[in-house]
Design brief:
57% of the residues lie in helices and 0% in strands. By secondary structure, it is mostly helical. The longest helix is centred in the first third of the chain and has 21 residues, at 7-27.
Length: 75
């Protein structure tokens, strides 16, 4: 169901948001926190779970760190 998340998904989404906000402050300071949160939440509500795709959609770049451990998908 869109917009419905498990507790693990919310924890991972919070990590992704934090990572993106840190990168945005360094490389895209014109992006407001509200804009970043809205973009990430809109993507998540559409079912996106790939960390790299969140970064590309919000910042237009790949995250440098290995993001495989930060996927929103719960095994």
């Amino acid at each position: 169901m869109p917009g419905s998340y498990t507790s693990d998904e919310l924890k991972n989404l919070a990590r992704i948001l934090n990572d993106i906000l840190v990168e945005a402050r360094r490389h895209r300071p014109e992006l407001s926190t509200d804009d970043v949160v809205q973009r990430v939440c809109a993507l998540a509500d559409e079912g996106e779970r790939d960390h790299g795709k969140f970064f590309r959609a919000v910042l237009g770049t790949h995250h440098r760190a290995d993001t495989s451990c930060c996927s929103l998908e719960v095994n």
